[in-house]
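Q: What does the assembled structure look like for these inputs?
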Amino acid sequence: MHNPPIRHCTACGSPVIYRVPEGDSRPRAVCPACGHIQYENPRNIVGVIPAWGQQVLLCKRAIEPRYGLWTLPAGFMEIGESTEVGALRETREEAGAEVALKGLYAVINVLPANQVYFFYRGQLTQPQWQAGEESLDVQLFHEADIPWEQIAFRSVAQTLQRYFADLRAGHFQIHTFDIA
Amino acid sequence: MHNPPIRHCTACGSPVIYRVPEGDSRPRAVCPACGHIQYENPRNIVGVIPAWGQQVLLCKRAIEPRYGLWTLPAGFMEIGESTEVGALRETREEAGAEVALKGLYAVINVLPANQVYFFYRGQLTQPQWQAGEESLDVQLFHEADIPWEQIAFRSVAQTLQRYFADLRAGHFQIHTFDIA
Ligand SMILES: [Zn+2]
Ligand SMILES: [Zn+2]
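A:
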């Protein structure tokens, strides 16, 4: 789901050039034929930490990248949905699970990927889940059983570390951090 | 800075069609010639609530939309920067001001615009500012003097309302809400 460099104008199909438009400060894909400027911006990944008691529900990835590694249910935020609605959708799609959201937990800038992650805390409404098309397996883990060496993304590993630390401390706070 | 509907493939310039790709669940701009899929996602607006004592720094817009109305310094997050770096950049560009960030304050889903706003609290490092190219004026306001009827965006008005309520209460918390 990565967009490659823009070569043609989305409005008219002509080849674009990269230049700094008037009144702007950085190069954009500008169409010399029709004048359209195509902007590129970072994208949001929305997901949930689905909890059942002291345990957290993880998904084993059935897709690249990081096939076979474990992750929290999360994916690209779509046009027309809020971050919360997107997080619930991804939990349904990847883990076949329903959660009650308990608030925003982590906001992470993943700079190498030009992505911003949003993780919400969620309470499973019942101990029920099912691997979706993008998951090989879905499983509850106590902190002691988390496969730390097989977590798919640093954003997920660092979120889980903070989550279990907060769980042990007995209170949750919002975490904002960057991954460079 | 709004992207119109995608009509041509950014990779090869051929006309695209909207259809649901295999394994996907919603229509995308698909290129029948080269197979490229162009995804569209919500975009982030990053900004600051610049504080000087009990006062907040607002900018009078010199650009459309909402020319002549007041707003917090904020703008589109750019490729290659974090939400924090983008918020500092916008404060510099629009208000000519330097702030020390004091943490994430508001995360707002503005659904009609497909935008997510991030507002950080900021402390002006000195009582100094200057209207940038996109501002007609920049001014400090006490709560009692905020021109509520001339605030450019609902996201900004609702953030300022929460901010001053927290200021009166003596403690700040993160606010997450939707504007439908
Ligand atoms: Zn064009
Ligand atoms: Zn193409």
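Residues 97 and 129 of chain A are 5 Å apart (CA to CA).
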